[in-house]
Amino acid sequence: MTPHIVVLGSTNMDLVAYVERAPRRGETVTGRAFRTFPGGKGANQAVAAARAGATVSMIGAVGTDGFGGRLRAALEHSGVDTDLLRTVEGASGTAHIVVDDEGGNAIVVVPGANAALTGLTHGDEALITCADLLLLQLETPLDGVLAAARYARDHGVRTVLTPAPAQSLPPELLDAVDLLVANEHEAAALTGATDPRTAAHKLLDQVPDVVVTLGAEGCLYATRGAEPVTVPAPRVTAVDTTGAGDTFVGALAAALGEGRPLPSALAWASSAAALSVGRPGAAASMPYRTEIDAEAEARA
Ligand code: ATP
């Protein structure tokens, strides 16, 4: 059965400058190109999950500026249901991204309309109640994220949190989460431990399943009562790693929603993320289910 995934999170227009190397503080460098891509961690995860085969509904907010309509249309183009995407007066969220020649990136996010997502409407609650899985990130206000996590917990809906941008979190949020998927920086910010294994162990005190993503090295999966396991990433030439983490989480959610066990879902998500780093853009680079299946089969 096709899983229904609800994403509560950000929609941003990504404003991307491509440079040989990122500028240091006070320095100006000349970029080689500029492009705009619809993005935001919430919208990216929604698009990734939809392309990976799930039915996806997005709870979010866009502004009344020129970007708002483009952001909504981009979600709909990937098949994401936007009935509960609010339009609020003012600017949409924007992400200012510098991508260097090695495929690395540095990002400033300005929340704009995303700041309006401070709580749940009755419509949001009804949607979450019927979902197989709820995806959360931290680019929208913590109050709204916490309300959604608690509501999902109270109604037996599995919740996956990406704790990005990196920050420390109130224990009550982690207590309401079933699976945490953090990159190394986020895991360190949450625990104070720079070693991913140590960070994962600490996080298991509050969350039953933890995944720490390790870029080209793949990811580390930890569950209570067992030794952490490394899932390697396929070897690919990185063109643009922007959105790799969101592709990974969206595909992972689709696989988990179908009832796959976590280790097999992680391997499938790694194939999806590897495909995305070989192409430019964030949401634009996200693979479709048939491509992920072919990639996963080729690597098996
Ligand atoms: P980003 O912020 O760039 O979207 P992230 O920092 O959230 O990513 P990463 O740990 O860099 O997350 O990457 C997430 C997943 O994407 C990894 O676990 C891996 O499966 C895949 N990935 C990232 N970089 C590469 C790469 N160079 N080659 C293959 N897979 C990669």
Q: Which ligands accompany this protein?
A: adenosine-5'-triphosphate
Identify the CATH homologous superfamily: Ribokinase
As a percent range, the share of strand residues is 15-25%
Uncertain residue ranges: none
Helical content stands at 25-40%
Strand numbers in spatial order across the main sheet: 5-4-1-8-9-10-11-12-13
Task: Please trace the helix and strand order, writing H or E for each element.
Answer: EEEHEHEEEHEHEHEHHEEEHHH
Number of strands: 13
Radius of gyration: 18 Å
Top-tier CATH class: Alpha Beta
Query: What profile does the largest beta sheet have?
Result: 9 strands, mixed
Query: What oligomeric state best describes the polypeptide chains here?
Result: single chain
CATH topology: UDP-N-acetylmuramoyl-L-alanine:D-glutamate ligase
Rounded average pLDDT: 95
Note the overall shape.
Answer: globular
What is the count of helical runs? 10
Note down, in words, how this protein is organized.
Its cofactor is Mg(2+). This is Ribokinase. Belongs to the carbohydrate kinase PfkB family. Ribokinase subfamily. Pathway: Carbohydrate metabolism; D-ribose degradation; D-ribose 5-phosphate from beta-D-ribopyranose: step 2/2. The protein is α/β, with parallel strands linked by helices and 300 residues long. Helices cover 35% and strands 24% of the residues. The protein is built from ten helices and 13 strands. The chain has helices spanning 41-51, 66-77, 122-129, 142-154, 171-175, 184-191, 196-203, 244-257, 262-277, 289-299; strands at 4-8, 12-18, 33-39, 55-63, 85-88, 93-99, 105-110, 133-136, 158-161, 179-183, 209-213, 219-223, 229-231. The strands form two sheets. Strands 5-4-1-8-9-10-11-12-13 form a nine-stranded mixed sheet, sandwiched between helices. Helix 1 packs across helix 8, helix 6 packs across helix 7 and helix 9 crosses helix 10. The longest helix is centred in the C-terminal third of the chain and has 16 residues, at 262-277. The protein is globular and about 50 Å long. Bound molecules: adenosine-5'-triphosphate.
